[in-house]
TrEMBL record:
GO terms for molecular function: 2-aminoadipate transaminase activity; pyridoxal phosphate binding. It comes from the Bacteria. CDD domains: AAT_like (cd00609). Gene3D superfamilies: Aspartate Aminotransferase, domain 1, Type I PLP-dependent aspartate aminotransferase-like (Major domain). Keywords: Aminotransferase, Transferase. The keyword Transferase applies. Residues 16-362 form the Aminotransferase class I/classII large domain. It comes from Paractinoplanes rishiriensis. This is Aminotransferase class I/II.
Length: 373
């Protein structure tokens, strides 16, 4: 029987798919969210269901600022429909045709599409601070901002170290370059603590931080936020569609306030960390039987260097025939052809046994193909 479509993910029979950066369905807090909705209805009554405050309901924003514990203030926060929406809004306010947006590479591939929607050109950010400064000075076009995911990045799982963070903030400040920090994976940390955000290190000046509840609660909420200087928050709040429609996704935002203030959020995220750590360890162990791999301290992804002269793009069709899928590394690179020696494997979506089986299928396939050394 053909089901009417409800969700984005499509299961392909016989394929264990390491391509999707989606949560494991069993880890979505279905009961807890329903309880938070009922509590929000009791607490806020009709106010949950009318037009919301332009920058987000105070009970959510107050809880969020306290939870972030990094000095973020109410006046620096605007609630959005997720990090994608946050990026689209910020980009539409700051960039346009003829501009050059600098992007880290490899980085979150779907951000490229959001940024390109502004009509701006995307260009890879240079590796060293001196080159970055040189590029901004000589490019001859407006550079509205630099986009990066410095903490548990997608696809690499890596984080910028402290010295590099401070250097980047310093160069950006000197060159008048705004940094747009996508901080989506901050809370999914499996060892120690996450590094301080660029937002925190900069004292909230020269940095816009994008946050999301997609990874920590559920992507279907379509709920996230922007942290920025109050003048940019004012511009977001003053958008015509906010004036017309009120605060973004208000009823969900109010429910999230109950989910947060009741302590359920903290318990849920602690559970997620334990579950995703186990999933990461299962995938790492199974990949390691065939290929070297770096262990990410947080996030959802392994960034795996293929052996010999393997190409991720060319490996995909035989891999799918062998019952495993992934995203080729080229998808995450802004320059054509870069990253083809890597693949991104997600450990978020499948339980440990399936992750082990998927990596075994991939490793065994690679061992049998020409190009393996
Ligand atoms: C780095 C990064 N930013 C943003 C998103 C999308 O977040 P949201 O669901 O909050 O729009 C993702 C999801 O994969 C991501 O990996």
């Amino acid at each position: 029987m053909i089901q009417p479509p409800v969700i984005q993910f499509e299961r392909r029979p016989g394929i264990l798919d390491l391509g999707w950066g989606h949560p494991r369905p069993g880890l979505l807090p279905v009961e807890e969210w329903a309880a938070a909705g009922a509590e929000a209805a009791r607490t806020f009554g009709w106010q949950q269901l009318t037009y919301g405050h332009a920058t987000g309901p105070a009970p959510l924003v107050d809880w969020l600022c306290a939870h972030l514990a990094d000095g973020t203030r109410f006046a620096q926060t605007f609630v959005t429909g997720g990090a994608s929406h946050a990026l689209a809004l910020v980009a539409s306010l700051l960039a346009g045709p003829g501009d050059v947006i600098l992007v880290d590479s490899p980085t979150y591939h779907l951000a490229f599409r959001i940024l390109a929607d502004t009509g701006a050109t995307l260009r890879r950010m240079p590796g060293s601070p001196a080159e970055l400064a040189g590029l901004v000075r000589t490019i001859g076009r407006r550079v509205p901002f630099l986009y990066l995911v410095p903490t548990f990045g997608n696809p690499t799982g890596r984080s910028l170290d402290d010295a590099r963070r401070r250097e980047l903030i310093e160069v950006a400040r000197r060159e008048g370059l705004l940094l747009v920090e996508d901080d989506t994976y901050r809370e999914l940390v499996y060892e120690g603590t996450a590094p301080p955000s660029l937002w925190e290190l900069s004292g909230g000046s020269g940095v816009v931080r994008l946050g999301s509840f997609a990874k920590t609660v559920a992507p279907g909420l379509r709920l996230g936020w922007v942290n920025a200087a109050p003048d940019l928050i004012g511009r977001l709040a003053g958008l015509g569609y906010v004036d017309s429609g009120g605060g973004v996704n208000h009823a969900t935002a109010v429910t999230m306030a109950s989910f947060g203030t009741s302590g359920v959020y903290d318990r849920h995220v602690a559970r997620l960390r334990d579950a995703y750590r186990l999933q990461r360890d299962a995938l790492v162990a199974a990949v390691r039987a065939h290929l070297p791999v770096e262990v990410p301290q947080g996030g959802w992804f392994l960034w795996v260097r293929l052996p010999g002269s393997f190409s991720g793009t060319r490996l995909l069709p035989p891999a799918e025939k062998a019952g495993v899928s992934f995203v080729p590394g080229t998808r995450f690179c802004v320059d054509d052809g870069d990253g083809d020696d890597h693949v991104r494997l997600s450990f978020s979506h499948l339980p440990p046994a399936d992750l082990t089986e998927a990596a075994t299928r991939l490793g065994q396939l690679i061992a049998t193909l020409p190009g393996h050394e």
